[in-house]
Design brief:
It contains 14 helices and no strands. By secondary structure, it is mostly helical. It folds into two domains: about 180 residues, Serine Threonine Protein Phosphatase 5, Tetratricopeptide repeat (Alpha Horseshoe), CATH 1.25.40; about 60 residues, no CATH class. The longest helix has about 45 residues. The radius of gyration is 23 Å and the shape is globular.
């Protein structure tokens, strides 16, 4: 009887060990399958198929309800969609702000549930911090373009704190440097301005996120070179900065050309290419690009309608004055 009891106890112990190992393996498998699942829809965003991307990310949110990924990337797709035919290219339209904010809030809550657990792996904790920090970063950007300065500051600070925790946990998590770099740069740009210096004096430096333009650029370059998920996003962020802030139009043209060549269906990259060539006063390159856009308009390509026709003709007209 004693030997039978010992045998049963050994069997039960073995089953427990096997079940634990199986759960750990499933967790790794789920993490890998989720990362693989988001790759295709993210490419749809860059290709300009925003509705297709949103549909795929909705399916991902249903398949992986515990993960913030589905809700987060639906918000990202809407953010990119806001650039389409937007009069202010660097800001986009405000049409989707309400839904973007709702999805980001959901992503943050899901990330917080993961972070509150004590039994999460380092990988899962890193991913949760990434999604939380990235969601806060977008909320800050949206609030800023709504002219809501205090919420923008609050969300930027929350994002910065989250990314500092992530980088301390895993300095090799290259995707962490994208949104974090954007915040360092943009806050540095604001605090270096006369109005920003007044705000810093009135509110106190501790109330504001930290600004550092050089550090921000370095972080963005790190993400652009090594970020498995954020390489294109970081290149686009650098493109915005070179075009609208630093006046480095040669670098802007290089990045815009790279992105437009890789994703020719995305009107946003064509618009930046026009601006880069206009900044360089390269009439030949601008004229060639504008004619390519007009050819797409004539062919009836999605995203290339009357607005893009007007945009191309406007830049061609300006170029004749040089």
């Amino acid at each position: 009887m004693k030997s039978l009891y010992s045998f049963l106890r050994a069997c039960i112990f073995s089953l427990i060990i096997l079940s634990v190992l199986a759960c750990e393996g499933f967790a790794q498998g789920t993490r890998d399958s989720l990362r693989e699942a988001i790759t295709g829809p993210r490419e749809l965003i860059f290709q300009g198929d925003y509705d297709g991307a949103i549909e795929r990310f909705t399916e991902i949110a249903q398949k992986y309800p515990r993960s913030p990924a589905g809700d987060f990337y639906r918000a990202v797709a809407l953010l990119w969609k806001s650039y389409v035919d937007a009069r202010k290219l660097e800001k986009g339209d405000r049409e989707f702000d309400g839904e973007i904010e709702r999805l980001l809030e959901s992503a943050i809550k899901k990330a917080e549930v993961i972070l509150a657990r004590d039994d999460e792996s380092k990988e899962d904790r890193s991913d949760a911090l990434y999604y939380s920090g990235s969601a806060y970063s977008i909320r800050s950007r949206v609030s800023l373009f709504q002219n809501h300065a205090l919420p923008a500051t609050k969300y930027a600070r929350a994002a910065q704190n989250t990314f500092e925790e992530l980088i301390a946990l895993d300095p090799d998590y290259a995707d962490a440097y994208f949104a974090s770099g954007s915040i360092y740069y943009q806050v540095g740009l604001l605090t270096d301005s006369p109005i920003g210096k007044i705000a810093t004096t009135m509110l106190g430096a501790k109330a504001l996120p930290v600004g550092d333009r050089e550090k921000g650029l370095n972080y963005l370059k790190t993400a652009a070179e090594r970020g498995p998920r954020t390489s294109v996003d970081a290149k686009f962020a650098l493109l915005e900065i070179y075009t609208f802030n630093e006046n480095l139009f040669d670098e802007a043209a290089r990045l815009a050309s790279e992105l437009q060549t890789r994703y020719p269906e995305n009107q946003t990259f064509w618009r930046y290419l026009l601006r880069a060539y206009a900044g360089l006063k390269d009439r030949h390159a601008l004229d060639r690009t504008a004619k390519e856009i007009l050819a797409r308009v004539k062919e009836g390509k999605p995203g290339f309608g009357s607005f893009m026709k007007f945009e191309a003709q406007k830049f061609m007209t300006e170029a004749r004055k040089w």
